[in-house]
Design a protein that fits this description.
By secondary structure, the protein is mainly alpha-helical. It is built from 8 helices and no strands. It has one domain.
Amino acid sequence: MKSLEQQQKIFRFKNPKQQKIYDNLLIIGPGPAAFYLDACKIMEDPNQFKSSIHIVGHLLREIESAIRDVLLLVSRREKSLLHKKKSKKKILILKKLKKILSALGISEEEPIYKFWIDIAKKQEGSKKLYKFAHRSGLRYRVLQKDFIDFWNKMQDIFL
């Protein structure tokens, strides 16, 4: 079985931004980096699978939550936030995310702040991470502009 580094050498990232995201995700851990590598491979030719959008949607969810978990630790949040009941999960995710963004010096006026908070709130249909990961009815999702836009904005968050 080839190592993650060997797999990455075989694949050439489309642009330096993707290489930088991958390198940074390796710092977080091999899982998020592998998920991103696979998502990039799929997005090079999203028509290779009927379920490409669903697969990449799941990978984006995993990467985003890994980044959030690591940044939360880095932002030195209170330990009590980790032990709250799941019924308050959505409120806690927003609270944690706001703490992370603040620690990173990202203001509420910046587009990346608004986009990431909207994802956490799951308010806007096109910004729901699970929208692309899960099916709607018995059909698969076809590649459309809204997913390409979403993919690009998620890479901005990852960067």
